[in-house]
Design goal:
heterotetramer, A: 371 residues, alpha+beta, 4-stranded mixed sheet, 4-stranded antiparallel sheet, 12 helices, 55% helix, globular, B: 406 residues, 11 helices
Chain lengths: 371, 406, 371, 406
């Protein structure tokens, strides 16, 4: 039994934190927040690529570091802490995982090295309308090998070079690789509740598309990709939730009311204790998810769903109650609480909402009970 | 229990309806933000019209510009006015808190000078109590007022001041003797908000809006005649102001907004089928509805006390704490139901998502402004349930010696 | 607008409280709790009958006081406060309401005076199995005018003289009046989580039964009766919740920890504030329900459901957190907290669980929206 | 992260399994209640068998009867033992708290006398700290010990004592000098529970069961040699005991019990259809499951720290607060789902309802025993998150002058 980061992994995480504290301070996040023309920080993206993080889980033969998913999780936790405004999740947790999961050798050799090198930004395009993602929702279709239809919202779709698109061919759905620089693709940038992350509406009109994975396996593959992304996103959420708790802690110690620190009042003490409890539950579930992801265990669907449900709850609760702990200051633009409040909501939806994941979790549990 | 008016109430309501029908403008230009003088003009015109017919400050004596009426009459007028579209009301703080304070603690000259113009809507007031170091702890005011001959010289900063940017006068709580214990050594003044020594800066909220201000005082000179109440009596005077605030029938209106959730539910699907059939969502809708209804009928209980000429019970104190929580929970739940689409903040592309996002970004402010959830629970526990005060370390020591963390 | 008890109603409530404080102190409740052979206090029942409360809402022509349902609600609130161990709800809120709602003149003149005089105890028999009450659940049936089948659980079925039974005749259900002293009826007393209220399993074998109300209207009538009972039960729940809060308040003031009353700690202060908030919301919803019941308003289904949902939540929360406030003492048999904890659960289920009522509420709201 | 044993761990686990296979009795006679000597005998026999093979107190030195092993070994043994049905363990308090206190603060004679018999299961210990006036405030002990020649005379009462009715010895916290501040002026003794001056009365719990006792001392005479630690050092000694309590890997086992809820869901219908398809219930099941899983893996993290030879982090402190809350919420939700049937408390007529009722009646105790929800949140806030202590009015004043409300 060894249920924690190894010393190497801890070292990697410490290094990642140090790196991000210097390269992705809150000013960098606000730089993207306050500039409508920017949806990510190109400099940070370049620096992260130079660290090799984009290829952390990519095999060395394809230009990656060939580390495991737990190492990637350690990096994700720190990216979450720093609210790094870069298309890391879309490119690494979604597109890279999709290619590694379902790509042909040719596709892997073509895309993975470029991704690892930071030459390609990816995005994962599944949603077309409000509500949980179901196969029935998918209207985008392939005719004569060309893709037509609309995907909205697509996180990082405004800056991505490569999209993994869930589309319909005849009666069945499949995944497709689409180069967004090509013809027949129009992008429209969309305002979101977290301006530190870019989102677009993608419209395809007979755009060139190359199938990724087996025909008709689209929904099944999308769900496998979502399971992997959910685990890695959970680490970003846990990182963000811990940071939100730390902000609340230090404010509670320095802010005085009625002659003593507000942290000496049980209303605040117990609020922080509740945040801590949810954060620990989320971390433990995330660890289990990472183990399942790393070992390719059959438990992944359950573990990923549990990790996501716990992480969504923890980050949302930590962000809103950390803000509440800051009182009036927390409601101002200048104080950083709202950045975490926004990101908690964004991360809580980008891989599908917690409600949908609870349903998936229980469905898996029933399957397990039946077995 | 009876929702129907007494004959007397019905007669008054009919009269009010007729008058509103004839006089109420049909223009509302959204909230008062930092650049809407026109809107403000409309508000002032409407206030004057009400005052001239005795519908402004209905319970105040006629010779002060009021209506010389009963509390239940002002309740009924409020109900009926809220049914017609009128300009929003920037006079609430002045007429609800500041001017009543002048009336109870000010000198005769001030009453003469200020009450009527305020009722007529010619002059708008703001309340200058909260400070950066204070927040929930209003009595921690540090803004200094120092004797200077017959005048006082004021330096310091206030924060979270609603309407400061369009106010003509302000009620200002200052510290005049830091060697006294906290609750002594404060003094209240009225000030001219147009004095160049007063600088108003809007506060940029997380939602992007700016409904509040910071107000800075740099060598602001005021006459001793602008003092409201005695030197060192500031806290006693402030309590009068705050008391008036608490007496105003507390929030809880507006319903649960569950209608919007129904709309959403009919619009989207869950993994299991149409959201409208989702038992989890249906249970939540029921819970939100029951809380909103509870607040609505709690307000009715308060109005009943008023119309019986009694002082409302403590039940009115629960309004904001409940409604703010419901708002935040509902918005979060609705966006979760929208799934990825909930990320979109564009009314054209996703009207419901955008609407719920607006609520999501407003809710944290509601949970804080006018008393945080935590402060309100404390108030309920102490004033309503008779629990002991928290242990206080800021009493019976000179204000300057109270730990403040800085 | 007059949204509170009138002075007369307040007087009635004060009198009721005074009466119950002397006649139904906690010792009387414990007398039933500790004696397995007793499922109600006969002496208290007799005294309550002498007060005329059983006939409070029964017209004078049928031997009642001819007061309104708001007066009955005021009495209910006090009965809830005192945890009175008597079959008041079954007899008055259910059976009396059923007879007044659906009974023929003959049935009214036969039963209402007896009920008002305390000569007849009633019970309402609908449930046959676990889960929400639906028409499909009803298996008890009428053949040749005789009733056969099983009803479980039936609150006060062990002591009742008269039962209102939901049964099936052919394909449709109707309500029936059944005298339990008659032939073909066997009762089996059942252990429950609140031994201060008696419950039985009733087995009918060709028992004499007389239809109450229109044939085929059984389920519709049962729901109307449940709406009326829900409002009155809500007042019992509000009364119990307020008492639980008062117990917590006085314990918080007299119990010291670390040199001061536990009521001076925010953990306790805010817990009590939360109880107060739920109690007030429940009271306001109950008032609205009483108004709808009294005036026969079309809003009754919504008002009754809202009153019940709020009251179930309030009493459950007040009972469990009042117990928690009492710490270890609250977990002992000698301290009264568990009596409220048990009664909160019993009242929360006797007219159907809150979950079912939430569903009924939303269904009604949809109907209203559609209209 | 790896669920698999290291080769070393695997080898040890195999050895343990083989030994349990050969030696573990397959008899459990339910919880130790007030009349189960037979069960107690089985427990003692099993403890002796473990001790003789070095599986009792695995981490303790061999020459004190322990196994001389590592923390990770006792973790593995615990995991494996929990898989086979064994008599329940009435030795936990003695071996987990009392005897370690003797070992760290007692004199050599006491160590000689008590450690080995306790390990062998021949002698059972109970902890006599809590008092009626104390509760969460252990240091408020009023049980008086007064010098009487070479002896001490003890009078007073303890409460919430587990196992007092079958214990041979007790570790007793007394007040020896009420003129000293609260945390000074206490002294610790070991006492003979069979002394006629000691009276044990079971506490009748709301659930009907009796797992705890009140213990009364009437002129109990103890020798000064029974003192554990110095006079006035009682609190320091007590902290050692309580420290040992906190170090024991905290609860959270047992899973969420959602299996039973699934069973119920397949059994009943809501107004909308089969409960198993009810989205509201399904969401709750997911939430309970995630919390139970979170606790399970949190325990794994603690075990990992142990097997790495580190001190477990604070995360183990969340177990009880979470599981108790889940228990109460789940039981209440399940009974609500049963609707009227949930009233029945008869396993024959309604097995699931009865089972959930048992949980419902046990949950309040879980939320209180061993630290209330409120105390645990305080501990987390102070010891884990570094928040300041609550303002204390009971320090630096003579114990007898501390307000106690009586």
């Amino acid at each position: 039994m060894d249920f924690d980061y190894t010393d190497d992994q801890k070292f990697l995480r410490t290094e990642a934190r140090r790196f991000l504290e210097s390269r992705s301070p809150i000013e960098v996040v606000r730089g993207v927040l306050n500039d409508d023309s920017k949806s990510y920080d190109a400099g940070l993206w370049k620096a992260v690529a130079e660290q090799g993080w984009l290829g952390a889980a990519i095999p060395e033969e394809h230009g990656g570091l060939g580390l495991g998913h737990i190492e990637l999780a350690a990096i994700a936790e720190e990216l979450g802490r720093s609210l790094a405004p870069i298309p890391f999740a879309s490119t690494v947790y979604f597109v890279t995982e999709a290619v590694m999961l379902a790509g042909s050798d040719a596709q892997k050799s073509r895309w993975l090295p470029k991704i690892a090198a930071g030459e390609v930004i990816g995005c994962f395009a599944t949603s077309e309308r409000a509500g949980a993602l179901t196969e029935a929702q998918v209207q985008a279709r392939i005719d004569g090998g060309k893709l037509s239809g609309v995907k909205i919202p697509v996180t990082d779709g405004d800056i991505a070079d490569l999209a993994v698109v869930l589309a319909r061919e005849g009666s069945r759905t499949s995944l497709y690789l689409v180069e967004l620089v090509g013809a027949g693709v129009t992008r429209e940038t969309i305002q979101t509740l977290d301006p530190t992350r870019g989102v677009a509406k993608l419209t395809f009109a007979n755009a060139a598309a190359e199938r990724l994975g087996e025909a008709g396996e689209g929904m099944a593959l999308a769900e496998q990709v979502l399971n992997r992304a959910a685990v890695l996103l959970a680490f970003e959420q846990v990182g963000g939730a811990d940071r939100a708790l730390e902000m609340a802690k230090s404010y509670a110690l320095e802010r005085y009311a009625f002659g003593r620190p507000i942290g000496s009042y049980q209303a605040i003490k117990h609020k922080l204790a509740d945040i801590y409890i949810k954060n620990e539950l989320a971390r433990s579930n995330a660890y289990y998810g990472a183990w399942a992801l790393q070992t390719g265990a059959a438990e992944l669907p359950v573990a990923a769903a549990a990790a996501r449900v716990a992480a969504c709850e923890a980050f949302w609760f930590a962000a809103k109650e950390s803000l509440q702990t800051h009182g009036g200051m927390g409601y101002t633009w200048e104080v950083d609480c709202h950045l975490f409040y926004r990101r908690a909501q964004q991360l809580g939806l980008v891989a599908g909402g917690a409600k949908a994941w609870k349903e998936r979790l229980v469905t898996e549990l029933e399957r397990r009970n039946a077995a | 229990m009876d929702f129907n008016d007494t004959p007397e109430e019905a007669a008054y309501r009919a009269e009010v309806r007729a008058w509103l029908e004839a006089n109420a403008p049909r223009t509302r230009v959204g909230e008062v933000s930092h650049d809407d003088a026109p809107n403000l003009d409309a508000s002032k015109a409407w206030q004057r019209k009400k005052a001239e017919s005795g519908y402004a400050c209905i319970t105040w004596p006629k010779d002060w510009g009021g209506g010389g009426g009963k509390a239940w009459q002002s309740v009924i007028f409020g109900q009926e006015e809220s049914k017609v579209t009128t300009p929003i009301n920037p006079f609430a703080i002045g007429l609800g808190m500041c001017v009543p304070t002048i009336m109870s603690a000010g000198n005769d000259a001030d009453k003469e000078r200020f009450v009527r113009p305020a009722v007529l809507g010619d002059e708008i007031w703001c309340q200058l109590f909260s400070e950066p170091a204070g927040g929930s702890d209003v009595a921690a005011a540090r803004t200094r007022a120092v004797r200077d001959g017959d005048d006082w010289m004021i330096n310091g900063q206030k924060v979270w001041t609603s309407g400061a940017h369009y106010s003509d006068f302000g009620l200002l709580l200052t510290r005049t003797d830091p060697d006294q214990p906290k609750h002594k050594g404060m003094t209240m003044f009225w000030i001219d908000m147009h004095d160049p020594a007063v600088e108003v800066r809007p506060i940029h909220q997380m939602s992007g809006a700016s409904n509040f201000n910071e107000v800075y005082f740099t060598d602001l000179r005021v006459k001793d005649s602008q003092r409201v109440g005695g030197v060192g009596e500031g806290w006693r005077v402030a309590l009068v102001t705050l008391m008036n605030e608490r007496l105003s029938v507390g929030g809880g209106g507006g319903g649960s907004g569950h209608g919007r959730v129904f709309k959403l539910a009919n619009d989207v699907a869950t993994l299991a089928g149409p959201a409208a059939k989702d038992a989890g969502l249906r249970e939540k809708i029921a819970e939100w509805f029951v809380q909103a209804e509870g607040l609505k009928y709690t307000t009715y209980r308060t109005m009943t006390a008023l119309s019986r000429g009694q002082t409302p019970g403590p039940e009115s104190s629960i309004g904001k704490i409940v409604s703010a929580g419901v708002m935040q929970d509902m918005a979060h739940t609705a966006l979760d139901l929208e799934d990825q689409f909930g990320i979109i903040n564009d009314p054209a592309l996703a009207p419901l998502a955008a609407a719920f996002q607006t609520t999501l970004m407003a809710a944290p402010g509601l949970r804080i402004a006018g008393g945080t959830d935590e402060i309100l629970r404390n108030i309920i526990a102490e004033r309503v349930l008779g629990m002991p005060q928290d242990v206080r370390l800021d009493k019976n020591v000179p204000f300057k010696d109270i730990p403040s963390g800085r």
